[in-house]
Description:
- A two-stranded antiparallel sheet has the order 1-2. It has a two-stranded antiparallel sheet with strand order 3-4.
- The mean pLDDT is 89.
- It has helices at residues 8-18, 23-34, 48-63, 86-91, 114-120, 126-137, 144-156, 159-172, 197-223, 227-232, 235-245; strands at residues 66-72, 79-85, 101-104, 107-110, 179-183, 190-194.
- The protein has three domains: 8-92 and 186-207, no CATH class; 101-172, no CATH class; 214-245, no CATH class.
- The protein is built from eleven helices and six strands.
- The protein is α+β, with helices and mostly antiparallel strands.
- It is 55% helix and 13% strand.
- The N and C termini lie far apart (44 Å).
- Helix 1 (8-18) packs across helix 9 (197-223).
Amino acid sequence: MAIPDFTDSDLLDLWEGGSRRHPLDRALLLYSWAYPQQPRETLADLPLGTIQRALLALRSNLFGPRIEAWQDCPACGSRQEIQLDASELLSELPDEPQPLSIKVLDHNLRLPCSRDLAALIEQPDPQLAARQLLKRCLLSSPSADSLAAAEAVAASMNEEQLAAVEAALEAADPAADIALKLNCSDCGQPWSTSLDISGLLWGEITARAQALLWEIHQLARAYGWGEPQILAIPAWRRAAYLNLVAP
């Protein structure tokens, strides 16, 4: 699916619509803007990797493929610059998670989705969260007996079995958690982190929206133009006007 072109007015609308949302809901909002043909009521049930790939593509569409980010070294605390290429990351990932369900330890599971993350977000214990995720992803009929059976399966698994389930889910949907292997340029410490493409993209959208608001404010004050008039002016010409009026 091709991502539609965005105008500056579209970007401001997107920023306004997502500013007060939870990060999980914001990621789904970004997906819906990238692929408006997808029914909104289905977004929370899409595999996590589907959302991640879409946001990488949206980021390339809005700001280009080159990504610059920063992480603090966990050993010495020094600020480390990270340079990534969204196109390269996308080329290394499968187009869609296949299959949408897997069999692990004689149990059929679907791939986790945003709805699952929302249900687990307040669970501080990683092992309990893993068991709850397993219970949610077990495929069975929605009867009371089936729910009780799912709880029994999740409670009965040991740490090794839970790790096997987690590894199988990650292998089936590798884009769900894009791991970055980093190395500190100051102390040499290696570490791994997950790419938060939703948070990174939202930060860039916010910065661009605030820059647009400044442009609108300056030109409206100088010429009395309204926001629609200003945003209809090509960016390069707005910049020329701003050079004339900015203090």
